[in-house]
Automatic annotation (TrEMBL):
<dbReference type="InterPro" id="IPR017853">
    <property type="entry name" value="GH"/>
</dbReference>
<dbReference type="InterPro" id="IPR001360">
    <property type="entry name" value="Glyco_hydro_1"/>
</dbReference>
<dbReference type="GO" id="GO:0004553">
    <property type="term" value="F:hydrolase activity, hydrolyzing O-glycosyl compounds"/>
</dbReference>
<feature type="compositionally biased region" description="Pro residues">
    <location>
        <begin position="437"/>
        <end position="450"/>
    </location>
</feature>
<dbReference type="GO" id="GO:0005975">
    <property type="term" value="P:carbohydrate metabolic process"/>
</dbReference>
<keyword id="KW-0378">Hydrolase</keyword>
<feature type="region of interest" description="Disordered">
    <location>
        <begin position="401"/>
        <end position="450"/>
    </location>
</feature>
<dbReference type="Pfam" id="PF00232">
    <property type="entry name" value="Glyco_hydro_1"/>
</dbReference>
<protein>
    <submittedName>
        <fullName>Glycosyl hydrolase family protein</fullName>
    </submittedName>
</protein>
Length: 450
Protein backbone atom coordinates (compact mmCIF):
# COMPACT_ATOMS: atom_id res chain seq x y z
CA UNK A 1 0.00 0.00 0.00
CA UNK A 2 1.00 3.64 -0.33
CA UNK A 3 1.36 5.68 2.83
CA UNK A 4 0.69 9.39 2.97
CA UNK A 5 1.85 11.50 5.88
CA UNK A 6 3.39 9.55 8.78
CA UNK A 7 2.46 10.44 12.35
CA UNK A 8 4.78 8.65 14.75
CA UNK A 9 6.06 8.35 18.28
CA UNK A 10 8.74 6.16 19.83
CA UNK A 11 9.77 4.07 22.79
CA UNK A 12 12.93 5.64 24.22
CA UNK A 13 15.61 2.95 24.04
CA UNK A 14 18.92 4.70 24.76
CA UNK A 15 21.50 2.47 26.47
CA UNK A 16 24.93 4.17 26.66
CA UNK A 17 27.46 3.28 29.34
CA UNK A 18 28.92 5.74 31.85
CA UNK A 19 31.46 5.54 34.70
CA UNK A 20 34.28 4.40 32.41
CA UNK A 21 32.03 1.79 30.82
CA UNK A 22 31.15 0.07 34.09
CA UNK A 23 27.50 1.20 34.32
CA UNK A 24 24.84 1.02 31.62
CA UNK A 25 21.97 3.49 31.45
CA UNK A 26 19.04 1.51 30.04
CA UNK A 27 16.08 3.79 29.30
CA UNK A 28 13.74 0.90 28.53
CA UNK A 29 14.34 -0.38 32.04
CA UNK A 30 14.14 3.05 33.67
CA UNK A 31 10.87 3.86 31.92
CA UNK A 32 9.29 0.49 32.75
CA UNK A 33 8.98 -0.76 29.19
CA UNK A 34 10.19 -4.28 29.97
CA UNK A 35 7.23 -4.60 32.34
CA UNK A 36 4.62 -2.51 30.51
CA UNK A 37 5.46 -3.13 26.85
CA UNK A 38 1.96 -4.35 26.00
CA UNK A 39 0.42 -1.27 27.58
CA UNK A 40 2.91 0.97 25.76
CA UNK A 41 1.79 -0.45 22.42
CA UNK A 42 -1.85 0.00 23.46
CA UNK A 43 -1.08 3.67 24.15
CA UNK A 44 0.25 4.01 20.61
CA UNK A 45 -2.97 2.57 19.18
CA UNK A 46 -5.14 4.74 21.44
CA UNK A 47 -3.61 7.86 19.91
CA UNK A 48 -4.38 6.72 16.37
CA UNK A 49 -0.68 6.24 15.59
CA UNK A 50 0.44 3.52 13.17
CA UNK A 51 4.21 4.16 13.17
CA UNK A 52 6.55 3.60 16.10
CA UNK A 53 10.27 4.24 16.43
CA UNK A 54 11.35 1.10 18.24
CA UNK A 55 14.33 -1.18 18.64
CA UNK A 56 15.35 -4.21 20.67
CA UNK A 57 17.89 -3.57 23.46
CA UNK A 58 21.15 -4.29 21.70
CA UNK A 59 23.10 -5.12 24.86
CA UNK A 60 20.80 -7.99 25.90
CA UNK A 61 19.85 -9.17 22.39
CA UNK A 62 23.24 -9.33 20.67
CA UNK A 63 25.31 -11.72 22.78
CA UNK A 64 28.29 -12.19 20.47
CA UNK A 65 29.17 -12.69 16.79
CA UNK A 66 26.18 -14.56 15.37
CA UNK A 67 24.77 -15.20 18.86
CA UNK A 68 21.44 -13.72 19.95
CA UNK A 69 18.72 -13.81 22.55
CA UNK A 70 15.61 -12.99 20.49
CA UNK A 71 13.05 -13.74 23.22
CA UNK A 72 12.03 -10.15 24.02
CA UNK A 73 12.22 -9.06 20.39
CA UNK A 74 10.03 -11.98 19.31
CA UNK A 75 7.36 -11.01 21.85
CA UNK A 76 7.35 -7.30 21.14
CA UNK A 77 7.52 -7.45 17.36
CA UNK A 78 4.78 -10.09 17.25
CA UNK A 79 2.57 -7.76 19.29
CA UNK A 80 3.29 -4.78 17.04
CA UNK A 81 2.45 -6.89 14.03
CA UNK A 82 -0.78 -8.05 15.67
CA UNK A 83 -1.74 -4.44 16.40
CA UNK A 84 -0.76 -3.36 12.88
CA UNK A 85 1.89 -0.96 14.15
CA UNK A 86 4.65 -0.32 11.62
CA UNK A 87 7.99 -0.20 13.48
CA UNK A 88 10.80 2.08 12.35
CA UNK A 89 13.47 -0.19 13.76
CA UNK A 90 16.22 1.48 15.73
CA UNK A 91 19.05 -1.07 15.87
CA UNK A 92 21.76 0.97 17.66
CA UNK A 93 20.78 3.78 20.00
CA UNK A 94 23.85 5.31 21.69
CA UNK A 95 25.47 2.09 22.90
CA UNK A 96 26.95 -1.32 22.07
CA UNK A 97 27.11 -4.61 23.98
CA UNK A 98 29.80 -4.95 26.63
CA UNK A 99 31.70 -7.52 24.54
CA UNK A 100 32.28 -4.91 21.81
CA UNK A 101 33.41 -2.25 24.25
CA UNK A 102 32.68 1.13 22.65
CA UNK A 103 32.70 3.06 19.38
CA UNK A 104 36.51 3.19 19.17
CA UNK A 105 36.44 -0.51 18.27
CA UNK A 106 37.16 -0.82 14.54
CA UNK A 107 35.51 -4.26 14.40
CA UNK A 108 32.12 -2.78 15.28
CA UNK A 109 30.91 -1.85 11.75
CA UNK A 110 31.39 -5.29 10.19
CA UNK A 111 29.98 -7.10 13.20
CA UNK A 112 26.98 -4.76 13.34
CA UNK A 113 26.19 -5.43 9.68
CA UNK A 114 25.85 -9.13 10.47
CA UNK A 115 23.52 -8.30 13.37
CA UNK A 116 21.40 -6.10 11.09
CA UNK A 117 21.19 -8.79 8.41
CA UNK A 118 20.23 -11.45 10.94
CA UNK A 119 17.58 -9.19 12.46
CA UNK A 120 16.08 -8.52 9.02
CA UNK A 121 16.04 -12.25 8.25
CA UNK A 122 14.24 -13.01 11.50
CA UNK A 123 11.64 -10.25 10.99
CA UNK A 124 11.18 -10.12 7.20
CA UNK A 125 7.92 -8.14 7.47
CA UNK A 126 9.79 -5.10 8.84
CA UNK A 127 10.47 -2.50 6.14
CA UNK A 128 11.55 0.74 7.89
CA UNK A 129 14.89 1.07 9.67
CA UNK A 130 17.09 3.56 11.46
CA UNK A 131 20.20 1.36 11.70
CA UNK A 132 22.19 3.82 13.84
CA UNK A 133 20.41 6.61 15.69
CA UNK A 134 21.80 10.18 15.83
CA UNK A 135 25.33 9.35 14.70
CA UNK A 136 26.55 12.93 15.21
CA UNK A 137 25.28 13.16 18.78
CA UNK A 138 26.62 9.71 19.66
CA UNK A 139 30.09 10.50 18.30
CA UNK A 140 30.11 13.88 20.05
CA UNK A 141 28.95 12.71 23.46
CA UNK A 142 31.14 9.57 23.37
CA UNK A 143 34.31 10.78 21.65
CA UNK A 144 34.49 14.52 22.25
CA UNK A 145 32.50 15.52 25.32
CA UNK A 146 33.64 12.61 27.48
CA UNK A 147 30.10 11.76 28.60
CA UNK A 148 29.30 8.25 27.35
CA UNK A 149 30.87 4.95 26.34
CA UNK A 150 34.58 5.58 25.60
CA UNK A 151 34.29 8.98 27.35
CA UNK A 152 37.05 10.56 25.28
CA UNK A 153 37.62 14.31 24.98
CA UNK A 154 39.49 14.77 21.73
CA UNK A 155 38.95 15.42 18.04
CA UNK A 156 40.55 12.06 17.27
CA UNK A 157 38.13 10.29 19.59
CA UNK A 158 35.27 12.14 17.88
CA UNK A 159 36.40 11.30 14.34
CA UNK A 160 37.08 7.66 15.21
CA UNK A 161 33.63 7.21 16.73
CA UNK A 162 32.07 9.09 13.83
CA UNK A 163 33.67 7.01 11.07
CA UNK A 164 32.81 3.75 12.84
CA UNK A 165 29.20 4.80 13.46
CA UNK A 166 28.64 5.89 9.87
CA UNK A 167 30.35 2.82 8.40
CA UNK A 168 28.19 0.64 10.63
CA UNK A 169 25.10 2.44 9.35
CA UNK A 170 26.15 2.06 5.70
CA UNK A 171 27.07 -1.63 6.01
CA UNK A 172 23.84 -2.32 7.90
CA UNK A 173 21.78 -0.74 5.12
CA UNK A 174 23.54 -2.94 2.57
CA UNK A 175 23.01 -6.05 4.69
CA UNK A 176 19.32 -5.34 5.26
CA UNK A 177 18.76 -4.73 1.54
CA UNK A 178 20.13 -8.20 0.82
CA UNK A 179 17.21 -9.58 2.83
CA UNK A 180 14.57 -6.94 2.14
CA UNK A 181 15.28 -5.14 -1.18
CA UNK A 182 12.46 -2.62 -0.65
CA UNK A 183 13.64 -1.55 2.81
CA UNK A 184 13.63 2.18 3.51
CA UNK A 185 16.07 3.89 5.84
CA UNK A 186 15.17 6.91 7.95
CA UNK A 187 18.40 8.52 9.15
CA UNK A 188 17.31 10.07 12.43
CA UNK A 189 19.95 12.77 12.93
CA UNK A 190 20.10 15.82 15.15
CA UNK A 191 19.69 19.02 13.13
CA UNK A 192 22.05 21.60 14.60
CA UNK A 193 23.08 25.23 14.18
CA UNK A 194 25.85 27.27 15.82
CA UNK A 195 25.43 31.05 16.16
CA UNK A 196 28.45 33.31 16.59
CA UNK A 197 28.07 35.60 19.60
CA UNK A 198 30.57 38.15 18.21
CA UNK A 199 32.71 38.71 15.09
CA UNK A 200 35.63 37.05 16.90
CA UNK A 201 33.57 33.85 17.19
CA UNK A 202 32.56 33.62 13.52
CA UNK A 203 35.37 31.32 12.42
CA UNK A 204 34.76 28.83 15.23
CA UNK A 205 30.99 28.88 14.64
CA UNK A 206 31.57 28.24 10.95
CA UNK A 207 33.78 25.26 11.80
CA UNK A 208 31.07 23.73 13.97
CA UNK A 209 28.48 24.42 11.28
CA UNK A 210 30.60 22.40 8.86
CA UNK A 211 31.20 19.58 11.34
CA UNK A 212 27.46 19.17 12.00
CA UNK A 213 27.10 17.73 8.48
CA UNK A 214 29.94 15.21 8.66
CA UNK A 215 27.92 12.12 9.54
CA UNK A 216 25.35 12.68 6.81
CA UNK A 217 27.99 13.74 4.28
CA UNK A 218 29.76 10.41 4.77
CA UNK A 219 26.53 8.43 4.97
CA UNK A 220 25.25 9.85 1.67
CA UNK A 221 28.63 9.76 -0.10
CA UNK A 222 28.89 13.53 -0.38
CA UNK A 223 32.30 15.16 -0.70
CA UNK A 224 33.29 17.38 2.22
CA UNK A 225 35.08 20.69 1.73
CA UNK A 226 38.84 21.06 2.06
CA UNK A 227 38.68 22.23 5.71
CA UNK A 228 36.68 19.19 6.76
CA UNK A 229 38.85 16.85 4.68
CA UNK A 230 41.94 18.10 6.50
CA UNK A 231 40.11 17.81 9.82
CA UNK A 232 39.23 14.18 9.13
CA UNK A 233 42.69 13.29 7.86
CA UNK A 234 44.39 15.04 10.81
CA UNK A 235 42.29 13.05 13.27
CA UNK A 236 42.63 9.48 12.16
CA UNK A 237 40.59 8.95 9.00
CA UNK A 238 42.56 7.50 6.08
CA UNK A 239 42.12 8.26 2.39
CA UNK A 240 40.86 4.72 1.83
CA UNK A 241 38.28 5.12 4.59
CA UNK A 242 37.10 8.42 3.12
CA UNK A 243 36.79 6.94 -0.37
CA UNK A 244 34.83 3.98 1.01
CA UNK A 245 32.05 6.43 1.87
CA UNK A 246 32.24 8.23 -1.49
CA UNK A 247 31.75 4.94 -3.33
CA UNK A 248 28.43 4.05 -1.69
CA UNK A 249 25.18 4.60 -3.58
CA UNK A 250 22.37 4.20 -1.07
CA UNK A 251 20.66 7.59 -1.25
CA UNK A 252 17.70 6.26 -3.22
CA UNK A 253 16.77 4.10 -0.23
CA UNK A 254 16.95 6.95 2.29
CA UNK A 255 14.76 9.48 4.02
CA UNK A 256 16.57 12.21 5.95
CA UNK A 257 15.21 12.30 9.49
CA UNK A 258 15.80 15.61 11.26
CA UNK A 259 15.48 15.78 15.04
CA UNK A 260 14.89 19.17 16.66
CA UNK A 261 14.79 20.20 20.31
CA UNK A 262 14.94 23.53 22.11
CA UNK A 263 18.64 22.80 22.73
CA UNK A 264 19.64 22.14 19.09
CA UNK A 265 20.79 25.70 18.50
CA UNK A 266 23.97 26.94 20.18
CA UNK A 267 25.81 30.15 20.91
CA UNK A 268 29.56 30.14 20.25
CA UNK A 269 31.93 32.52 22.04
CA UNK A 270 35.38 33.73 21.01
CA UNK A 271 36.99 31.95 23.97
CA UNK A 272 35.67 28.59 22.74
CA UNK A 273 32.65 28.27 25.04
CA UNK A 274 29.43 26.90 23.60
CA UNK A 275 26.09 27.40 25.34
CA UNK A 276 22.47 26.80 24.44
CA UNK A 277 20.97 29.70 22.49
CA UNK A 278 17.39 28.51 22.61
CA UNK A 279 15.20 28.57 19.54
CA UNK A 280 16.51 31.24 17.16
CA UNK A 281 15.96 29.91 13.63
CA UNK A 282 13.60 27.05 14.43
CA UNK A 283 12.98 23.69 12.79
CA UNK A 284 11.86 25.00 9.41
CA UNK A 285 14.95 27.09 8.67
CA UNK A 286 17.47 24.49 9.86
CA UNK A 287 15.67 21.71 7.98
CA UNK A 288 15.77 23.86 4.85
CA UNK A 289 19.57 24.05 5.23
CA UNK A 290 19.85 20.27 5.50
CA UNK A 291 17.52 19.71 2.56
CA UNK A 292 19.41 22.21 0.40
CA UNK A 293 22.55 20.19 1.07
CA UNK A 294 21.24 16.67 0.45
CA UNK A 295 18.07 17.05 -1.66
CA UNK A 296 16.36 14.11 0.05
CA UNK A 297 12.84 13.62 1.41
CA UNK A 298 12.58 14.72 5.03
CA UNK A 299 10.84 13.49 8.17
CA UNK A 300 10.72 15.26 11.55
CA UNK A 301 11.88 12.29 13.60
CA UNK A 302 12.14 13.63 17.17
CA UNK A 303 10.96 16.48 19.34
CA UNK A 304 9.55 17.06 22.82
CA UNK A 305 9.48 19.59 25.65
CA UNK A 306 9.04 19.35 29.41
CA UNK A 307 5.38 19.59 30.34
CA UNK A 308 5.95 22.44 32.79
CA UNK A 309 3.74 23.63 35.64
CA UNK A 310 0.50 23.85 33.64
CA UNK A 311 1.05 21.31 30.88
CA UNK A 312 0.54 24.03 28.31
CA UNK A 313 4.28 24.39 27.65
CA UNK A 314 4.51 21.02 25.90
CA UNK A 315 1.21 21.62 24.11
CA UNK A 316 2.45 24.94 22.74
CA UNK A 317 5.72 23.33 21.61
CA UNK A 318 3.78 20.61 19.78
CA UNK A 319 1.80 23.19 17.86
CA UNK A 320 4.91 25.24 17.12
CA UNK A 321 6.70 22.18 15.73
CA UNK A 322 3.66 21.26 13.68
CA UNK A 323 3.49 24.80 12.26
CA UNK A 324 7.14 24.41 11.28
CA UNK A 325 6.40 21.10 9.56
CA UNK A 326 3.61 22.74 7.57
CA UNK A 327 5.95 25.61 6.68
CA UNK A 328 8.56 23.14 5.40
CA UNK A 329 5.90 21.38 3.36
CA UNK A 330 4.45 24.60 1.97
CA UNK A 331 7.79 25.86 0.62
CA UNK A 332 8.06 22.71 -1.48
CA UNK A 333 10.31 20.44 0.57
CA UNK A 334 8.98 16.84 0.50
CA UNK A 335 8.32 16.14 4.18
CA UNK A 336 6.89 12.74 4.99
CA UNK A 337 6.17 12.67 8.70
CA UNK A 338 6.28 14.03 12.24
CA UNK A 339 7.26 12.39 15.54
CA UNK A 340 6.72 13.29 19.18
CA UNK A 341 9.38 11.38 21.10
CA UNK A 342 8.53 9.44 23.16
CA UNK A 343 5.30 7.64 24.03
CA UNK A 344 6.10 7.86 27.78
CA UNK A 345 8.12 10.13 30.01
CA UNK A 346 11.86 9.57 30.11
CA UNK A 347 14.33 9.36 33.00
CA UNK A 348 17.58 11.28 33.66
CA UNK A 349 17.78 13.12 30.35
CA UNK A 350 18.10 16.30 32.43
CA UNK A 351 21.71 15.17 32.97
CA UNK A 352 22.03 13.87 29.39
CA UNK A 353 22.07 10.36 30.93
CA UNK A 354 25.44 11.11 32.56
CA UNK A 355 23.97 10.52 36.01
CA UNK A 356 21.80 7.68 37.26
CA UNK A 357 19.53 9.67 39.57
CA UNK A 358 16.12 8.26 38.65
CA UNK A 359 14.78 11.74 37.85
CA UNK A 360 11.58 11.51 35.81
CA UNK A 361 11.48 13.95 32.90
CA UNK A 362 7.87 14.80 31.91
CA UNK A 363 8.44 14.63 28.16
CA UNK A 364 6.08 11.88 27.05
CA UNK A 365 2.62 11.65 25.57
CA UNK A 366 1.86 9.48 28.63
CA UNK A 367 3.39 9.56 32.11
CA UNK A 368 5.14 6.52 33.57
CA UNK A 369 1.87 5.30 35.07
CA UNK A 370 0.64 5.26 31.44
CA UNK A 371 -1.83 8.10 32.03
CA UNK A 372 -2.20 10.42 29.06
CA UNK A 373 -0.68 13.88 29.38
CA UNK A 374 -2.23 17.07 27.92
CA UNK A 375 0.23 16.96 25.02
CA UNK A 376 -0.90 13.39 24.32
CA UNK A 377 -4.50 14.53 24.04
CA UNK A 378 -3.51 17.36 21.73
CA UNK A 379 -1.39 15.07 19.55
CA UNK A 380 -4.32 12.66 19.24
CA UNK A 381 -6.55 15.51 18.10
CA UNK A 382 -3.91 16.85 15.74
CA UNK A 383 -3.61 13.45 14.08
CA UNK A 384 -7.38 13.16 13.76
CA UNK A 385 -7.72 16.65 12.29
CA UNK A 386 -4.88 16.47 9.79
CA UNK A 387 -4.82 12.83 8.68
CA UNK A 388 -7.55 13.32 6.10
CA UNK A 389 -6.47 16.81 5.03
CA UNK A 390 -2.82 16.21 4.16
CA UNK A 391 -3.28 13.39 1.61
CA UNK A 392 -5.80 15.52 -0.27
CA UNK A 393 -3.51 18.58 -0.36
CA UNK A 394 -0.14 16.84 -0.36
CA UNK A 395 2.99 18.21 -1.98
CA UNK A 396 5.07 15.40 -0.49
CA UNK A 397 6.02 12.00 -1.76
CA UNK A 398 4.01 8.87 -1.15
CA UNK A 399 5.91 5.94 0.28
CA UNK A 400 5.31 2.39 -0.96
CA UNK A 401 4.91 0.60 2.36
CA UNK A 402 3.84 -2.91 3.30
CA UNK A 403 1.86 -2.21 6.44
CA UNK A 404 1.51 -5.02 9.00
CA UNK A 405 -1.72 -6.93 8.56
CA UNK A 406 -2.38 -8.33 11.98
CA UNK A 407 -2.17 -12.01 12.85
CA UNK A 408 -2.63 -13.12 9.26
CA UNK A 409 0.15 -10.96 7.85
CA UNK A 410 2.53 -12.81 5.58
CA UNK A 411 5.60 -11.24 4.03
CA UNK A 412 5.31 -10.53 0.32
CA UNK A 413 7.17 -12.74 -2.08
CA UNK A 414 10.70 -11.79 -2.99
CA UNK A 415 9.59 -11.21 -6.58
CA UNK A 416 6.93 -8.73 -5.53
CA UNK A 417 9.35 -6.83 -3.29
CA UNK A 418 11.85 -6.65 -6.14
CA UNK A 419 9.15 -5.33 -8.48
CA UNK A 420 8.33 -2.47 -6.13
CA UNK A 421 12.03 -1.90 -5.56
CA UNK A 422 12.53 -1.45 -9.30
CA UNK A 423 9.91 1.27 -9.66
CA UNK A 424 10.78 3.19 -6.52
CA UNK A 425 13.30 6.02 -6.57
CA UNK A 426 12.59 8.16 -3.57
CA UNK A 427 16.06 9.69 -3.27
CA UNK A 428 16.04 11.84 -6.43
CA UNK A 429 13.52 14.52 -5.56
CA UNK A 430 15.40 17.71 -6.32
CA UNK A 431 13.32 19.81 -3.94
CA UNK A 432 9.66 20.73 -5.00
CA UNK A 433 16.53 15.47 22.65
CA UNK A 434 15.40 16.20 24.84
CA UNK A 435 13.54 19.12 26.23
CA UNK A 436 15.23 21.65 28.46
CA UNK A 437 15.03 21.23 32.17
CA UNK A 438 17.45 21.18 35.08
CA UNK A 439 20.92 20.24 33.94
CA UNK A 440 23.27 20.87 31.04
CA UNK A 441 22.62 21.74 27.44
CA UNK A 442 22.08 18.59 25.34
CA UNK A 443 24.10 20.17 22.54
CA UNK A 444 27.56 19.14 21.42
CA UNK A 445 30.34 21.24 22.83
CA UNK A 446 33.73 22.30 21.58
CA UNK A 447 36.71 19.97 21.29
CA UNK A 448 37.79 18.74 24.69
CA UNK A 449 34.37 19.05 26.33
CA UNK A 450 32.79 22.05 27.99
Amino acid sequence: MAAGFIFATGVENSYPTIRSGTHRVDEMEKCGHYTHWKRDFECVVELGIEFLRYGPPIHTTWLGPGRYDWEFADLTFAEMKRLRIMPMVDLCHFGVPDWIGNFQNGDFPDLFAIYARDFAARFPWVQLYTPVNEMFICATFSGRNGWWNEQMTSDQGFVTALKHLVKANVLAMQAILEVRPDALFIQSESSEYFHASSPAAIKLAETYNQQRFLTLDLNYGQRVNSDMYEFLMDNGMTRDEYHFFLNQHLRRHCIMGTDYYFTNEHRVYADGRVTASGEVFGYDEITRQYHDRYQLPVMHTETNLWEGPTGQEAVDWLWKQWANVLRVRNIGIPILGFTWYSITDQVDWDSALREDNGTVNPLGLFDLDRNIRPVGKCYKQLIKDWSTVLPAQSHCLVLPLDMPDGDNAEPDSKAERLRRHAVRNIGRTGGARRGPGPGPDRSPGPPGGW
